[in-house]
What we know:
By secondary structure, the protein is α/β, with parallel strands linked by helices. The protein has a domain at 2-172 and 195-225: Rossmann fold (3-Layer(aba) Sandwich). Helices cover 40% and strands 14% of the residues. The chain is built from 13 helices and nine strands. The strands form two sheets. A seven-stranded parallel β-sheet has the order 3-2-1-4-5-6-8, with helices on both faces. Helix 9 (231-241) runs parallel beside helix 11 (278-287). It is globular, with a radius of gyration of 20 Å. It starts with a strand and ends with a helix.
Amino acid sequence: MNILLTGAFGNLGTYTLQELLRQGHKVRCFDLQTPRNLKTAAQFGSRVETAWGDLRLPESIQAAVKGQDVVLHLAAIIPPLSDEQPEMARQVNTHGTYHLVKACQAQPRPPRFFFASSFDLFGHTKELPPPRTAADPVQANDVYTETKIEGEKLVRESTLDWLIFRFSDMPLIALRSGHPIMFEIPLDQRFETMHPADAALAVVNAIGVTELWGRKCLLLVGGGARCQVTYRQFLFGLLEAMGIGPLPEQAFTKKEYVTDWLDTDESQRLLQYQRHSFEDITGEIAALLGWRRLFIPLARPFARAAMLNLSPYLKNR
């Protein structure tokens, strides 16, 4: 099939692109022309067609959707950038989705439309028994969830055959530096993660499941029982994998956050995508250290100090 993939060179986008090619699809990649994206695109060479553009510019979208059978809309501004630049998040996440939906509806043969959403939309659910289901209500708690709710509404009200996934967290399989947002989730918060390669497999497998598109469906997609942890287990597991180790509990907020465990039985039954456990994820990240592992004992105190310096709670206390 001819597939337009927005956000093709982001975290989920890159894994989805690899899976699309593996399954024999013809892919047109739509993304911003940045130095990082140019470097990522070069890795795929002539195997893909690249349409550089901006979701905020309708003219570039109109050209990109021509002749496509399916549009996989992954592009979005996510936290923490959506918190730092809320107006850009609205322009990309809401207005960009509007432009893309309109361009698809205007085609002689409108493509099917896939929209990537988030489990953040369920809001504060700590007092509710898990897991969350697709029938649970949604609530906006920040610019990101506000724009994703608006994006879902635009897709639902369109005349297109559509499919929406609300994804759990997908960590970068990479060695990462700290950010203040890491301290804004309480350590006892329920947290579901998944390997981005599994998320990509779910997206691409869904293309061929006709019953999903016919009924205009919303699915919850996450790592499953082997990836259902607390935020303490999640973050400290990643930090252990990078050789940093757990951080003091007083560095973290006590305020409730917007993550939870998901009921993914239906999506797993239909799409057969859950292959990795949380331990698999941390193992892959740990393997990236390579020769640098030799220097961890020397670097650990400095890395920990730099991360803890980002915590407003530790400073206040």
